[in-house]
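From the pipeline queue, job 12 of 40. The input is one protein chain; the requested action is below.

Action: predict structure.
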Amino acid sequence: MTLERRSFLKLLGMGAGAGAVGAVGLAGCASKPVAVHGKKVVVVGGGYGGTIAAKYIRMMDPTLEVTLIERNDHFVSCPFSNLVLGGMMPDLSKLTIKYDKLAANHGIKVVQAEVTGVDPVAHTVTTSKGVFPYSRLVLSPGIEFRTDEIKGYDENVTPHAWKAGPQTLLLKKQLEAMKPGENVIISIPVAPFRCPPGPYERTSMIAMFLKEHKPGSKVIVLDGNPDIVSKKGLFLKGWKKHYEGIVDYRPAKKVTEVVPGGVLIEGLEEVKGAVINVIPPQKAGHIAHVAGVVGPDKKWCPVNPMTFESTIHKDIHVIGDSSIAGAMPKSGYSANSEAKVCATNIVNLMNGREITELSAINTCYSYLSRKEAVSVTGVYRVNKEKHVIEPVPGSVGVSPDLSETEAVYAESWLRNILTEMST
C-alpha cells in the first residue's frame, strides 16, 4: 500500500534547497562527512511515535528499508492506564499491543533489542543484536525520570506508575492493600511532563476507588505547579460533584524527599500517607542522551519544527515526549501527529522533494468517574517568523462539561489509535 500525502497536511513549499536529500541547513549541525548506507531508515522506540513513523514511511515509499528497534516485544499504553487504578479495567491487556501485524502488513523489520549506542558520524545504531546502519534515524524514546532530584526515592517502594506496566500493577496492589481511613499521596512534578492532564485524571480514579472501597480515606495531591495545568475547571467541577471531602488538592507543594511513611515538601513540611505515588520530574528518554541530541538544558531535544530533525545532529529526528515541540503537549496523540509529519518529510527529503509544512492535532481524554470523561483538543502550526510550533488561534479548547458522550468518544479514540499503531 502506498500513500503519497496525508490529506490533513497542507502542502506548502519551504524554499529552494530544502528539498535536496540531506541538504536541510540546521544551525549547530555536525559538518563531518558521513558514510552512505543507501536508503535505510532506523526507528528506535515502538510506542505512540515510533510505530507510526515506521508505518507511514513504508506506506509513502515502499522502496525504503525501515527497521523498528524496540527493547520489548510489546507496548503498553500509558494513556488510560489510570483506569486500572480506578478499577475500571481489570488489567493492562486492553492497553497492550504487539508488533507482528505491523511488521507483516508493511514490510517493517522489527528487532527486539537494547540500543547501546548511536554514532551520528558513522550513521550507525549499536544494539544488543548487532549494528544497524541508517540514512536517517528516528528516535522516539519517551521519557526518563530525574530521580536524583528527589532524595530517598525508590520506585519499588513509592511507584511512579508513569510508564504503564509493572509499576501500574504495583500501585494498584498497594491501593488494594491499604486500610480504610488511610490516605494516598500523589506528587505532581513541575511542568513540562508527559501527559499534562494525567495526574489529575489519576487523582479522580484513585478518589473513585477510595470512595467505593476505602471509606474515610483521602487522596492528598501535592502539586509542584502553582495551579492545575490542564482542564482545571472540569477537574475541579468533577471533584466537587463526585469526591467532595476525598480529594485534598494542594498547589505549589514541590516534593523533594521521600521519608518513611511520607514525603517532605521543599525539605521542610512533612505529609504522611499509607500509599505514596511520586511522579518524578522528567527528561528525554535515555537513548536521546546516548545519541547526544539533548539540548543545553540537559532535559529535552531541540528539533527543526518542520521536520523534527535534531538541531544538534543531522539526519537524526526526534519525536514524541523527548522533543521540544513548542506548544504541543507531551501526549500520545501529539507523538502520533509528529510522527506523521516527520515521516512525510523524511520521505520528501530522501526523494529530493520539498518538505511539507506542519499541521498537527492533539486530543487528550480524561475520565472523572466510571461514566464521565472530558477532553482537550488543539490544532498546531509553525510560526515561520519565530520558528516554533504554536496553536492555531481559537483551536484549543476543552469539552463544555463532564459527559458520558465524551467517555464513549474516549473509548473509541483508544481503540482506533492502538489499532493504527499495531496493524
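Job complete. The chain has a mean pLDDT of 92.
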